[in-house]
Amino acid sequence: MTQVPTRTERAPGGGAADREPVLQVRKLVKHFPLTRGILFKKQIGAVQAVDGVNFDLFPGETLGIVGESGCGKSTVAKLLTNLEQPTSGEILYKGEDITRLSGRALKAVRRNIQMVFQDPYTSLNPRMTVGDIIGEPFDIHPEVAPKGERRRRVQDLLDVVGLNPEYINRYPHQFSGGQRQRIGIARGLALRPEIIVADEPVSALDVSVQAQVVNLMEKLQDEFGMAYMFIAHDLSIVRHISDRVGVMYLGKIVEIGADQAIYEHPTHPYTQALLSAVPVPDPEARAHRERIILTGDVPSPANPPSGCRFRTRCWKAQERCAVEEPLLAVPEVFRGTAGPAEHPSACHFAEEKQVVPRD
């Protein structure tokens, strides 16, 4: 079993201090063409769903990705699992660019990078039994489990995710939402992958069931040593499960760092606005918290603003923001401080927000 590093073994802003990343994403771009015409189609533009994303994923860690709807989170997930082909950029799995692979080479890599989908109601084939759904990866990769052992392996997987092994002959409609998501997780675990990309795996579930699924994923990570890329809207869930967090806005990662650094010491205005919107159960703490209300609508990814993409909604925006795109790097003001604010942030005027208590 792979030994999972603790958070103290990881570097504050970028991952593991002395470990090689299992996955490296470099300048990843995905543009969807916009066309006009029926018989003679002409491209008139492109939706810039993902535009220059960079990050590393280390063995045994969980990288959380958060952001508004339409920011490109799910597109990144599909690119990592080769469900979509990138327009440009690299996805390096153990140093090999999987965007250039095909045939048997791609099939071998896919065995180690699996996905848990968002909707447990549509991601399972209603005409297949649970045993067939979970056992299908064994048909694609027969070297993993001989035919005589597949039924036992499927029952073992059902037991691992907390379901009765006797449910093997049931159909998806006979299960609740939380149970269906457990079936999806069992299918993702079948080939013992090194990486699981979880695209909002709990957003369609009730709160109590969300906690069960998240706790299950943490337990399985400790047991099998997998790396997770965990995509979600709920910032509290992402903080609970993640070692590092990346914040996306309009196709780009605008801030990334250790979970404590992002949640307690955010330096990008968009991250600060997101965190200010998180509900606080304590009435006294809520009364003394300053809420950041963003004005304006999210720009279209087909026509993003020049320079900094967040500048049209940012209260710090200046002329420089319109002409110069900020790089995702540690702000100069925090370099060498060795504090939690020393993590990459794509803002010309990155700083920790000064909390002003309300009367």
What features would you describe in this structure?
With 359 residues, this protein is of the alpha/beta class. It has helices at residues 73-80, 103-110, 130-140, 150-160, 177-189, 207-224, 235-241, 259-264, 269-276, 283-287, 319-323; strands spanning 10-11, 15-16, 23-36, 42-57, 62-66, 88-93, 96-97, 113-116, 195-199, 227-231, 244-249, 252-258. The chain has a domain at 7-37 and 48-253: P-loop containing nucleotide triphosphate hydrolases (Rossmann fold, 3-Layer(aba) Sandwich). The chain is built from 11 helices and 12 strands. The strands form 3 sheets. It has a 6-stranded mixed β-sheet, with helices on both faces. It has a 4-stranded antiparallel β-sheet with strand order 4-3-6-7. Strands 1-2 form a two-stranded antiparallel ribbon. Strand 11 (244-249) and strand 12 form a beta hairpin. The protein starts with 9 loop residues before the first strand and ends in a 36-residue tail after the last helix. Keywords: ATP-binding, Nucleotide-binding, Transport. One of its GO terms (molecular function) is ATP binding. InterPro entries: AAA+_ATPase (IPR003593), ABC_transp_ATP-bind (IPR050319), ABC_transporter-like_ATP-bd (IPR003439), ABC_transporter-like_CS (IPR017871), Oligopep_ABC_C (IPR013563), P-loop_NTPase (IPR027417). Residues 23-275 form the ABC transporter domain.
